[in-house]
Design goal:
The protein has a single domain, classed as Globin-like (Orthogonal Bundle), CATH 1.10.490.10. 74% of the residues lie in helices and 0% in strands. The chain has 7 helices and no strands. α2 packs across α4 and α5 crosses α7.
């Protein structure tokens, strides 16, 4: 990821080692936060549309499973920060699947990235420094631009 510095990669890995210690719980928190902050995103999950209370969300196996998939995909990106080709391949596949199969608009990734940073801030408190936040924002900006380009290249 050409625009990420060595310090950025270090910041990202430091935060990720804490967050990814429990991917299922972290992922569940991200998905629930996404649904609470941006309830319109639930329309893409046909089995989750009628879940409205926080308790229902916390107890739902589908939310837990999707959160774990989100964390797994993000982990793949983090593990390959020094291998842009591997990241691009994974993101291209992710974009194609979300655009063609799930009919998810690309702007929803931006919402997800905002929620992830918010979850990091809440989970880590003062342990999530402004420098780390900037590194994650940079990563998500690069990632979002790449996803946008994938969507644009497959639009009919």
């Amino acid at each position: 990821m050409a625009d990420l510095t060595g310090a950025d990669i270090e910041n990202i890995n430091e935060v990720w080692s804490k967050i990814y210690a429990n991917p299922e719980e972290s992922g569940r928190t991200v998905v629930i936060s996404l649904f609470l902050t941006y309830p319109q995103t639930k329309i893409y999950f046909k089995n989750l549309k009628n879940i409205s209370t926080l308790q229902e969300m916390q107890d739902n196996a589908g939310i837990r499973a999707h959160g774990k998939r989100v964390m797994g995909a993000l982990n793949h990106v983090i593990e390959n920060l020094k291998d842009w080709d591997a990241v691009c391949s994974a993101l291209s596949h992710l974009a194609k699947r979300h655009q063609d199969v799930h009919k998810v608009e690309v702007n929803n990734f931006e919402l997800l990235f905002l929620v992830i940073i918010s979850v990091f801030k809440e989970a880590l408190g003062s342990g999530f420094t402004p420098e780390q936040s900037k590194s994650w924002e940079k990563l998500f900006s690069i990632t979002y631009k790449y996803l946008e380009s994938c969507y644009a290249n497959t639009d009919s």
